[in-house]
Amino acid sequence: MSGKPFTLDSNVLVYAVDFRDPVKQALAEQIVQTAALRNCLLGLQSVGEFYTASTRKGISRPADAGREALSLLTLFQTFPASADAYRVAAREAVAGRFSYWDGVLLASAAEAGCTVILSEDMKDGAKLGPIIVRNPFGPAGLSAAATAALAP
Fold it and tell me: Is residue 124 in a domain?
């Protein structure tokens, strides 16, 4: 692994298996495959959200989503959410800066040493401590931020 540690939000993981948008699916697959070879740490929260979102939206059958979640847990080093991350998330949510669950993920990722999270669901450029949100999907493919995060 090389480069600064980064992480992926669950929306990128879901897009990688979402056949309804072939262009975004191909980009998300590229991100996940490349991230597995780079210094990408995956939040256990993202794996759980992947399973829930992909099954709830009818993108994946539970058995398929379960196999994919197990695969993600094998491919990536992971990090949990600490009690301190929940405290930060509560403060951020009350202040209106992030949703509670986004705050948990960001604070946990920061504790794990990540400096970037690739996410389409949060505002591009938003920061929480040392971590910055970058939308990986640009108008003509991968965004410059995603390309930089995935660089060797």
Answer: yes
In this prediction, residue 106 carries a pLDDT of 98
Residue 57's φ and ψ, nearest 5 degrees, are: -85, 0
Residues of the chain with pLDDT under 70: 1-2
* 65 in any annotated domain: yes
Amino acid code (one letter) for 81: A
